[in-house]
Amino acid sequence: RLSCIRNNIWLASCGVLSSGLAVLSSFGLMLFCGVPFVVTVANAPFLILGVGVDDMFIMIASWEQSLRKKEKSSVKSLLTETYSEAALSVTITTLTDVLAFFIGTWTAFPSVRSFCLYTGTAFVFCYVYTMTFFGAVLVLNHKREQGNRHWLTCMRVGGGEDQAENSCLYNACCIGSCSRQPSQPEGEHPMSIFFKKYYGPFVTNKWIKLLVVLLYGAYLGGSVYGCTQIREGIDLRNLANDDSYVIPYYDDDEKYFSTYGPRVMAVITESADYWNETVRLGIESCAQNLE
């Protein structure tokens, strides 16, 4: 916004910080519990950032909507209204994500198990920080706006009686509005108007609802069939870059050596006197018998 008061840069930064705190808390807890840290876990912060920022947008949108409904209400009433609107969406998305990743801990691959443990726990912390830390930041930011304070310095901004005599840039940076008129309440977002006036009536049409039910039935049937056909496994070639020397190695290994099966190794668990010829002959005889 072109307003030094309504600008929400710090609010957005705190939303990202909330995701970062969730990652730190999750990693710290898992490392404290002795869960091994593998390379794939390094991808978890990007997933948490995506979900955390999405939750941040939901909270801010609900807060702005509450302000439009109850502009003169108390902070407690505004925050109550915000949580009643946003908490359900944030909770459902968090529960589905946590459930998906904790189900992934049943896998036989230790690296995938560690990744799911770290990421699922991070989602839990992200939810906690969004509901507590970010809610407090919303209130502090609202009090800053109510106090007519600058978004960067938090110093009180002038009333702007002589806005007409100043440049537009000065008004935006030092007074709070590029307009020559006093600031007005913001209207509805164009996306909200689209969903309310066009998308909502389209989806609630009886023929469209029937089509959606049929499509969902087909999707559900395909998903159930796919679950019965899935096999757990991993192709090591998919873990390397396309131009890596590993790719032709696995291609040649599959082409020329796949008929022989996996390599088998015999391990002698006791100490052996390899300098003794009799012992060496015994080991060679054992290897021949195994072959």
From TrEMBL:
Gene Ontology cellular-component terms listed: membrane
Domain (SSD): residue spans on this chain: 1-140
Lineage: Eukaryota, Metazoa, Chordata, Craniata, Vertebrata
Subcellular location: Membrane
Keyword Transmembrane helix among record annotations: yes
Lipid bilayer topology: Multi-pass membrane protein
Transmembrane segments annotated in the record for this chain: 9-38, 44-63, 83-109, 115-140, 207-226
Domain of life: Eukaryota
Organism: Mohoua ochrocephala
Entry similarity comment: Belongs to the patched family.
Sorted UniProt keywords: Glycoprotein, Membrane, Transmembrane, Transmembrane helix
Protein name: PTHD3 protein
Membrane as UniProt keyword: yes
